[in-house]
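Slack export, channel: ligand-projects

TW: morning all. Re-posting the request from yesterday since it got buried. We need the structure predicted with the small molecule present, not the apo form. The ligand is fe (ii) ion; the SMILES is in the block with the sequence. No rush, but it would help planning for next week.
GE: picking it up
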Amino acid sequence: MNPTDNYTAVSLFTIPPDEPLPFSVSVYYRGHFVLYRKSGQAFDVGKYNRFIYKRISKLYISDADLDSYKEFVRQRQAIEEQKFNDPKLSVEQKVTNKTIRSLDLTTRELFAGSDEDMGANVAKVVGVAKDTVQRICERPYLRIFDSIPSSSSVISHSMRVSLMATFLGYQLGFVNPLALENLAAAGMLHDIGKTRLAMPDEIEMTEEQEKEIELNHSTLSVEELKKFPLVPEEVVHIITEHHERRDGTGFPNKMRGRQMHGLTKVFVIANTFDNLVTQFPGEREAKCRLAAEKMEQEMRAWFEPMLLPKALKLLVAPG
Ligand SMILES: [Fe+2]
Ligand SMILES: [Fe+2]
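GE: finished. pasting the full token output, ligand included:
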């Protein structure tokens, strides 16, 4: 019997800790599915965190329980939606709540699973990165996100890049809070120019026009940002340069490494890493390794050689 026949893999993050579950949950261990929680039991938060620490992000639901799992997820989503649409909340509060929730999930996805005994130092840096991104999400220019459909992959990519760039920045010596905030802001905003691709009146674009937007989206992002006051100059630099490469083969200006801003050199590593990770199939750990290998072997000339090895090591295993 094929062991995957009767089970469906689901994300750990769809299952809340400390809540009785109306379905059984299994884990895959040494080639077998093992019943982990029977229907009616809950994950205590300690066990739940243990999974995260061990980078186990998939759990398994048997076919018999699949419908009640789906219904459970649907109901929870409906409750969350209701919370965010509570008429008593101001628009700002709704946006902030939503952002904080996705920031929590994204931080866990990226870092919490690094190692069971993630050193206190790494935990501290992850905390600094998360706090920095949260502060940035409360800035007026982040309202730009309100116009992007929440399903757009630009939003999740931007949050991941924002967290990873800030985490890397700190670890690589940019400990000044303003520098970190600028990395975080650039992470959130660097690809907003791309969302013009999704404008309804531009759906009929030709492949060539799409390519044109891709090649110019750094500039388009900056144009969008200029509609807002008080965007720091350093953020504009990073966004303008985020597809430039050290060897001069990047776009839109074919800049060389020595012309690029110091923070851009950190930023491009996080951005390229995330773009590659999302292209590979499989579990996050394997995807991260493949992305790092590709960057080391095929793209090495794009990045600052003093930063790349350490940055990749930190991104693959932050602990
Ligand atoms: Fe980009
Ligand atoms: Fe990007």
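GE: first-pass observations. Residues 198-202 have pLDDT under 50 and may be disordered. The CA atoms of residues 87 and 118 lie 41 Å apart.
TW: perfect, thank you
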